Amino acid sequence: MTSAVHCQAIRKSFDSGEARVEVLRGIDFQARAGEMTFLVGPSGCGKTTLISVIAGLLDASAGEVALFGQTIAGLSARDQIVFRRQNLGFVFQQYNLLPSLTAAENAAVPLLAAGVKRSVAVKRSTEMLHKLGIGHRAEAFPKVLSGGQQQRVALARALVHEPRLIICDEPTAALDHKTGETVMELLASSAVHPERAVLVVTHDNRVFQFADRIAHMNDGVITAVEENSKLRS
User: Fold this and answer.
1) Alpha helices in the chain, H assignment, sequence order
2) Structural domain boundaries enclosing 121
3) Are 48 and 78 contained in the same domain?
4) Are residues 104 and 80 in the same domain?
5) pLDDT tens column, 133-176
């Protein structure tokens, strides 16, 4: 099966006063195309740092990341931006919605950045919002949306341009169980594609059955990876 994400010996350190804190301590990790991979572990173990390195939002202190065979560090800064725009969808914990744009416009941002005509981009983003059960709020601005509604707008933004790799940081954290299952079903259907993968960081064990593989992380290292077929059956 094709490797969508390949991390080799990834290390990441941060300066903290006079000390240097090593958050990632030699990570070897793979996420396969056609699958949804969960990354789980206690708070502070390095999960968000790892996906930030995978997405190119942080530079690794050491090691190498390749996405669909492309080594990100080998690209120029401009080419990294273009690669991420074309191939990645990222759902942040903080949502990062633009307050001056409506829900539909926020969700359409990746398409607009790619040069899609505005009317077409907004139509496609509105359709995605309807799939997520929030189409009736397409014209609303972020300030009047609940946390769960904002999260679904952020998810629509990550999915609307059909990226090859979708990375989600706690995508069900602000959602009720039924809505969370709807979101996970949509992510799972997105992952069932030979050239696409979904990587999810979560503490929500209610949705573990949606994973194909679960990578367990603790204290900056991957401690185990389990196939999840028994939960998917």
Assistant:
1) 47-54, 77-87, 103-113, 118-131, 147-159, 177-191, 229-232
2) 99-163
3) yes
4) no
5) 899 999 999 999 998 899 889 989 999 999 999 999 988 887 88
